[in-house]
Amino acid sequence: MARPRRFRRISQEPQIRCFKPERDDIDNLDSIEILIDEFEAIRLRDYHDIQQKRSAEIMGVSQPTFHRILNSARKKIADALINGNPLVIVGRGHLITYECKDCGFEWQHPHKEYEKCPDCASSNIIQVEEEYSSESEEFLLQRRSYGGRGVGAGPPTVCRCPNCGYESPKELAVPCSNTKCPKCETPLCGDD
Prior knowledge:
The protein is α+β, with helices and mostly antiparallel strands. The protein has helices at 36-47, 52-59, 63-83; strands spanning 18-19, 32-35, 87-90, 96-100, 106-109, 125-127, 158-160, 167-169, 189-191. The termini are far apart.
């Protein structure tokens, strides 16, 4: 029996989901589908030039799994470029979107139900929405990009120690509580 597929963290939703070549016979071509996790692997490794080991950590997968995802995405992109096929970014899986009303952190997960914010441990969280695409008849695997919903929206930009006041910049897709203060070893909290 196959092992269940591990959830892959997606830090940024694609702004454009379809690329089409300039051809007259475009309607006769089969489109090549890139999964959202393949898009994320390309974005982290090739676009942002983040090393493979760190990219795998950001996505929450092992390094060999990240390598397989990245190779699959590169082959599909090469096929689309060489053969002139349309390229479509699709997602799979059912996601629940959560938002912390105290720190503004937003996250999604396809299976787990949350009672506390993974960033600040507050229980003041709400379920925001479930995304569905009627075109593809499947749920899209998406994660909101940060900001853009008003004053104070989005995650904190600074992680602060509640004991000694030490501050460090917030790392994208990594909760502040995963980082310990170098002075007193206390988990950091989100703070602006």
